[in-house]
Amino acid sequence: MFSSVKNDLKTNFLKYTVVDTMSDEKLAETKHPSTINQLNLINLLKEDLEKIGLSDISIGDEGVLIAHIPATVENAPCIGLMAHVDTADDVEGNGVKPQVIEKYDGNNIKLINADRVIRVEDNPELINYIDSTIFTSDGTTLLGADDKAGVSEIMAIAKLLVNNKDIEHGEVEIIFTCDEETGCGMDAFPYDRIHCDYCYTIDGGTRYEIESECFNACKVNIDFKGVSYHLGAARGKMVNALTMATTFVNNLPQVESPEATDNRYGYYCPLELNATNDEAHLVVYLRDFELSEIERREEVLKSLALMVEQLYPGGSVSLNTKRQYYNMREISKKNPKVLNSIYEAGKRLKQPLFESPIRGGTDGARMANEEGIPCPNIYTGGHNYHSYYEWCALDAMEDAVKLILEILKIGAEK
User: Fold this and answer.
1) Average pLDDT over residues 8-35
2) pTM score of the predicted model
3) Cα pseudo-dihedral 153, 154, 159, 165, rounded to 10
4) Rounded Cα gap, residues 219 and 283, in angstroms
5) How crowded is residue 344: how many other Cβ atoms within 10 Å of its Cβ?
6) Count of CB atoms within 10 A of residue 165's CB?
7) Domains in the chain with CATH codes
8) Cα–Cα–Cα angle for 199, 91, 254, nearest 5°?
9) Is the CA virtual torsion 88, 91, 95, 99 positive or negative?
10) Engineering a disulfide at 293: which of 125, 146, 286, 288 sits with its beta carbon 3.0 to 4.6 angstroms away?
């Protein structure tokens, strides 16, 4: 049954990574999808699902594809499998030229079109894939395994189920979303078009890693209003909004920054600043696994705003806070079967699964908290996401497919 899976995964992955799907964070708050190119892959996936024999497929105006594979047993829960088609814009995400390394030799990987090297000392997981197939970009873009590896794995599962009617499973709901990387992918999500009892995002990384909780996330837009004057006559009159903004940033606690934290420690991250001496706009991200810590940091920002106003009389600071997503941990706890099925599947397959918190978020986090649908995250085999040094292992992709298939079987057991 698995004889063709690796070939299908490789074919799918190389086919999908070359489709430009980079999303646009600025447009995503008002436009769904934020970039038209994402629909090119969504439509291609629809065509590929039709080719393997599925007909219950729909694409909404917001760009979300939903398809259903009929159950082979009665009274089993409907299980969702979700992945996103967009790629991030941290580095160039369009024009991807995937490279295939067959029979990886265990050495550093030189990316062919850039002065960049994926070093074994920085990527110890590489040693687990000697003599196996590795995918990288050419070094001028990211690779796009986040999340086209997950997309490819769901497509391989769909083909397996359609071609093997003897596999016992409940109804499978396939969900492909846009704009996950912007944090806005679920803003217009068509919950009325889905009916899965629980769901799994196929959007993780390292082989065997399972993620059932994520950050609470908050985006704070901070506007500084100064007073503009001719620089030669500015004494006692001008209030420099750019100086106000940099004072604000410089007083954020450096020990609570992304570059100073890991594991379960949260952070402040000033992410964007546009400024003149008259006005400035600053974006700060807040992240933590505990909501109480997000609330604490929100109060700190309010205090900093008051401090800056006192330091710069005549200037003003205003904050606008948006909660982006919440830790999905509590929703998973309410339906223990969802996680138990993962670990039972891993036990049967002798996969040494381990759990880590996501220092980020997924569409599944919003689905869990907005609709109460448990949605933990399963590994895909990718590494170094959002960077030129991204790579993905074909063996890990195959293991992910095996795990997902076993989860679906367990879901159909009495």
Assistant:
1) 96
2) 0.89
3) 120
4) 7
5) 15
6) 9
7) 5-214+327-411 (3.40.630.10), 216-325 (3.30.70.360)
8) 85
9) negative
10) 288
pLDDT in tens, 114-165: 899 999 999 999 999 999 999 999 999 999 999 999 999 999 999 999 999 9
Q: Interhelix angle for 5-17 vs 145-163, to 10°? A: 140
Tell me the C-alpha distance between 218 and 212, whole Å: 19
Active site residues: 86, 180
Give me the amino acid identity at 33: P
Q: Is the peptide bond before 147 cis (omega within 30 degrees of 0)?
A: yes
Q: Is residue 65 a contact partner of residue 151, using CB atoms and an 8 Å limit?
A: no
Residues 6+ away with beta carbon under 8 Å from 339: 210, 212, 332, 376
The alpha helices in 189-311, defined as continuous H runs, are: 241-250, 291-311
Residue 402: CB atoms within 10 A of its CB come to 18
Distances (CA, A) of 214 to 27, 63, 81, 317, 387: 25, 25, 18, 31, 21
DSSP class of residue 309? H
Q: Which of 70, 44, 43 is nearest to 59 (CA)?
A: 43
- Going by the DSSP 8-state scheme, the letter that residue 253 receives in this structure is -
The two structure tokens encoding residue 324 = 């982006």
CA distance 301 to 319: 8
pLDDT of 159 reads 98
Least confident among 329-333, 346-350, 373-377, 392-396 = 329-333
Q: Count Cα atoms within 13 angstroms, Cβ side, for 175.
A: 29
Q: What is the dihedral of CA 202, 392, 398, 37, to 10 degrees?
A: 50
